[in-house]
């Protein structure tokens, strides 16, 4: 049991920090996208205003129409990508973060239970040794084995 516990603990010590770092990087990626989306909105809003102004002139009317279409298309695209990022944040990153924490709590709880069990067994063995029961049972076992060996049983 000790070996199994050590293996699981070792895996978690190596695996969980990597998962936690992945969650942190994902959150950073989302924040970077949000900053990009804000900048993009400002840029394409300005582009749309330029397009509206160009619509009012005879020579640049078609250019104004194109600028407005580009702005509207970019806004739609940004909104769709924001939806994907929201899903990614809620369904993936938050779930991973929650699972990492649950794994850590489970391993810590298992370790505590294991340590209590080992201490309990050690205390019971110590009590038996103090009472001499363990020594008496070893002597009895040795005598029994010697008799069996001597008589070929």
TrEMBL record:
It holds the Pfam family IMD. Residues 1-153 form the IMD domain. One of its GO terms (cellular component) is nucleoplasm. GO terms for biological process: actin crosslink formation; actin filament bundle assembly; plasma membrane organization; positive regulation of actin filament polymerization. This is BAR/IMD domain containing adaptor protein 2 like 2b.
């Amino acid at each position: 049991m000790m070996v199994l516990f050590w293996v699981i603990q070792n895996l978690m010590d190596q695996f969980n920090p990597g998962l936690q770092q992945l969650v942190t990087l994902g959150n950073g990626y989302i924040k970077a996208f949000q900053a990009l989306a804000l900048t993009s909105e400002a840029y394409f809003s300005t582009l749309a205003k330029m397009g509206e102004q160009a619509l009012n002139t005879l020579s640049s009317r078609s250019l104004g129409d194109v600028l407005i279409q580009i702005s509207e298309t970019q806004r739609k695209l940004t909104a769709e990508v924001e939806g994907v990022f929201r899903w990614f944040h809620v369904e993936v990153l938050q779930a991973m973060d929650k699972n990492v924490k649950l794994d850590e709590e489970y391993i810590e709880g298992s370790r505590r239970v294991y340590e209590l069990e080992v201490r309990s067994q050690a205390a019971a063995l110590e009590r038996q040794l103090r009472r001499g029961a363990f020594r008496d049972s070893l002597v009895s076992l040795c005598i029994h084995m010697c008799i069996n060996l001597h008589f070929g049983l």
